[in-house]
Amino acid sequence: MGMELTAFFSSGDGWAQPWMLDIELVESLRFGPPAGHTDLDVAIALTRLLHHDFVSYGTDGQGRHLDDDSAPLIIKAHRAVLERLALEPPAWPFRTFDGPRGFGTYWRANDMSGSWKARRDCIEQILGPTRDALEDLEELEYERRFTKGPSGSFKNLIFAADGVKPEIVLRDAVNNEVEIVRHADTCLVFTDPLPPHGLTWRQMVAWWQKNHQPGADEKTAAEGLYRRLYRSLDSKPEQLLMITYCVRYAEEGGFDLPALIPQVYLHYDPYTRKSGKQSGALYRQRMDFLLLAPDRSRIVIEVDGVQHYGRPNPPDEQGRITHTAVPRLYAEMVAEDRRLRLAGYEIYRFGGWELKDPGGRQLLESFFTSLLARHQKPAL
Questions:
Q1: Is 380 a domain residue?
Q2: Considering 72, 145, 184, 201, which has the largest number of Cβ atoms within 10 A of its Cβ?
């Protein structure tokens, strides 16, 4: 449900001051949306409000809601909400209507004094890209509802442990706050805002540069990140899958492909883990690979070794180890698949045996070609 512009105001005196900004509400928007609304709702409404009032000031002056005191507060809240949506906030050359830093001073200094159209175009240049990006997000939300894809906001991504597995606890069940209490140094944690069109290799590399390899150029950082991710893989079938996918990064446009994220120990969203009222240790859910695709699909890829459905027997006289099928293990695996599918995930499983076959690489190449074609960014 959208948000009306009047939601940011309380009624004034009905005459001299018909609009009174709800300052407490606006200040709270810097930390989260109000109950019953999303950040997308808020961002769209604030964009409309700013566009309307600055165009009004630059033209006929009719129907303005804001003044020189309230406009900067709205701009600040607008920036905070857009950053939570991983969108670039507009660059404002002014922050008020009047005064040295006002729109009026700006247009007079930039040859717009005799043209309402020039002033409208100025505001459109500032806010138009933001409005277009929000419309893209709205369209994606619309498509998601009809395709029953995942809902909820990205929270934490804990992945690629290359040693002892991390121990994770839920510290705050209300706000979905998690903490790694042991072995945090063995894994990677991505907590940057998730961009609207999934998570690309380029974005992962930029995160790695910022947090783990500052000063490195993009190519050097990409090589460092790839080596670090590869170290987290234990089996040859998993290694083959990652190599086969990641060679695509070297192709034209490859850095803008979805990043293949290995050994995801926690992909924690409100809709995938209902924690109840008690904080404590979380169930050890691990995905072999995760892709956050440009159409907002969340794709799990599993490589099933014999440990997924059997227990090892003691070595025989020749030292060979056989396995005994354990129906309970298989039942647990398919139950988890059902839960994730109902939450909107796509799941693809490979048998480790089929990837050991000489045709394993070709099988994977064909699979990834079809998968990426299916999950391209929607044409809007």
A1: no
A2: 201
Domain count, the chain: 2
Residue 45 sits in the same domain as residue 116: yes
Q: Specify whether 118 is located in the same domain as 186.
A: no
Residues 6+ apart with CB under 8 A from 179: 168, 169, 171
Let me know whether 120 and 258 are in one domain.
no
135 and 181 inside one domain: no
Domain contains 241: yes
User: 133 and 237, same structural domain?
Assistant: no
- Continuous H helices in the chain: 23-28, 39-58, 70-84, 103-109, 116-147, 201-211, 218-230, 236-246, 327-342, 352-356, 360-374
Please tell me whether residues 92 and 228 are part of one structural domain.
Answer: no
pTM above 0.70, yes or no: no
Q: Which of 128, 147, 166 is the last residue of a domain?
A: 147
In a shared domain, residues 53 and 174: no
> What does the angle CA 97 – CA 34 – CA 28 come to, to the nearest 5 degrees?
55
Can you tell me which residue has the tokens 């992909």?
A: 267
How far is residue 236's CA from residue 251's CA, in Å, rounded to a whole number?
A: 24
Q: Which domain holds residue 294?
A: 156-374
Cβ count within 10 A of residue 380: 10
Q: Is residue 379 part of a domain?
A: no
Calpha distance 163→298 (Å, rounded): 26
Residues 132 and 162 in one domain: no
Report the 3 state secondary structure along 163-176.
Answer: CCCCEEEEEECCCC
pLDDT in tens, the chain (380 residues): 467 877 888 765 544 556 688 899 999 998 888 888 889 999 999 999 999 999 999 999 888 889 999 999 999 999 999 998 888 899 999 999 999 999 999 999 999 998 999 999 999 999 999 999 898 888 777 655 545 455 555 566 889 988 887 777 666 544 556 677 787 888 998 878 776 678 999 999 999 999 999 999 999 999 999 999 999 998 999 999 999 999 999 999 999 999 999 998 754 433 334 433 334 444 436 789 999 998 778 899 999 876 666 677 888 888 887 778 778 777 877 888 887 787 778 999 998 889 988 899 999 999 999 999 998 865 43
